[in-house]
Structure prediction request, 170 residues.
Amino acid sequence: MLIDWNYIQQEYQLILDELILSDPLKNWQVPPQALQATNHKTKYGMADRDGVVYINQAFIGTASTELLNVTIRHEFAHLCVGLQHGHDVIFKAKAREFKADFGKHLKLESEQVHESIGYKYLLFAKLENGDEILFRKVHRKNAKYLRYKAGRFRYLTIKGVKVMSFRYES
Ligand SMILES: [Zn+2]
Prediction:
């Protein structure tokens, strides 16, 4: 499943609904007002003092759903404690409570999103079941995928399905 803007909006609302059950909006320093896309070059997301949460449009077309989830939680934690706290201990405690954990488990997803920022090529993967899916949006071609040949025992999988071949499209 690849992320589209509609998915980002749904996640935003679902997470907000969940968080305000334990932390009602009246306790938030800055109540969330809106969700907007950004094409920032490095940040996954941002929040401002008007209560706008910005999510990087580089998420769109990737499968980085966990990273998106954590990013939205992180921005909500900023709004809840107030932006003046930056990433201090008060913020960190709230981020933990909101389950905004950018752990090692998100490394692969982070790579996908970074590659998606200002990408040049689309990398498609042809799967054993006949599906062809958009695997990544990337800046440059990578020998790993150009030379890829699915072996009998050595091959890559996407969501458990064997990848037969890759191709780039600009
Ligand atoms: Zn932050």
